[in-house]
Write a structure and sequence with these properties.
Layout (H helix, E strand, L loop, with lengths): L2 H5 L7 E9 L17 H12 L3 E5 H6 L9 H9 L7 E5 L10 H4 L5 E5 L5 H7 L4 E4 L7 H12 L3 E4 L3 H9 L5 E7 L25 E9 L2 E8 L9
Parallel strand pairs: 1-6, 1-7, 2-3, 2-6, 3-4, 4-5
Antiparallel strand pairs: 7-9, 8-9
The chain binds NADP nicotinamide-adenine-dinucleotide phosphate.
């Protein structure tokens, strides 16, 4: 039974949108895992628009490091729009890393912006915690892997997050899909082929099947700049009132 739909009270978890760009052959990255910059300027604008519609933006360590993201809203108009509707100027920035082994030199820690929250495990070394603590609120959410159900319910109750967008990476998306916590998928299909056995798809490199297939409904499609923009909602999610 899906955790985020039927068995779990939807009022206690934020809505989770996964926002990704993929190629025609379903790749989200080049074989060398180089930064995901294969879409148009229009797509990058849309990414920020979707980010601004959410209370929090979440990424895992791999993407944070590879894409050197700050997870902010550089566009002042988007920030003003948030303030007008009574939201914080920028969404809360959320990082997921079981080891917590994250370099303090990354742009996210160097640029001003919304508060940063890190969900990690008991595996995080104490010296690393001490190093990051002045920049980040750190929470232990598991022993080996980060418990994403805990993360979402903590974001809901502690930070009043009602909608979160996950911008990567595929390992984190796979973890969310495994426990059926994805409500919505926003996909940009780029008119490119990458090939590559070691280039990940939306759920990472080929591996085990998910415990069950997850079903989505196409609810919106747009064409622009030689790209397709698709929005899917979890089939159960479409039958309930979204937050
Ligand atoms: N096309 C797109 O839209 C798009 C979007 C995002 C990323 N990407 C690409 O994807 C590639 C990165 O892929 P990736 O799979 O390596 O990145 P990832 O999912 O961002 O990072 C993987 C790491 O995140 C942590 N992590 C993920 N799920 C976790 C969980 N449930 N519990 C605890 N820790 C968890 C682990 O860090 P620890 O080792 O510290 O435990 C893991 O090693 C890059 O090339 C990036 O450009 C593409």
């Amino acid at each position: 039974m899906p955790l985020n739909s039927a068995s779990q009270d939807s009022q206690t978890l934020p809505r989770v949108t996964v926002h990704f760009a993929i190629t025609l052959d379903g790749k989200v990255s080049t074989p060398n895992h180089t930064p995901a910059q294969f879409t148009s300027a229009n797509d990058k604008k849309r990414l920020l628009e979707v980010r601004s519609e959410n209370d929090a933006v979440m990424v895992a360590k791999g993407t944070l490091q590879t894409d050197r993201m700050s997870l902010g809203l550089p566009d002042q108009m988007l920030r003003n729009e948030r303030l007008r509707r009574g939201a914080s100027e920028e969404p809360l920035r959320v990082i997921v890393s079981a080891t917590g082994d994250i370099g303090l030199d990354l742009p996210i820690f160097q640029n001003p912006g919304a508060p940063i929250v890190l969900y990690t495990t008991t595996r995080m070394l104490s010296w690393k915690r001490a190093e990051l603590e002045s920049k980040v609120a750190i929470y232990e959410a598991g022993k080996d892997q980060v418990d994403l159900l805990y993360v979402l319910s903590h974001l809901f109750s502690r930070y009043q997050v009602r909608a979160v967008v996950c911008e990567g990476g595929p390992t984190l998306v796979r973890s969310l899909a495994k426990v059926d916590l994805i409500d919505r998928i926003a996909l940009t299909i780029a008119a490119k082929l990458f090939g590559g056995r070691s280039a990940p798809s939306l759920t990472g490199l080929p591996g085990d099947f998910l415990p069950a297939s997850r079903h989505f409904q196409l609810v919106n499609h747009e064409i622009g700049d030689n790209e397709f923009y698709l929005t899917y909602e979890h089939e159960v999610c479409t039958r309930r009132t979204l937050l």
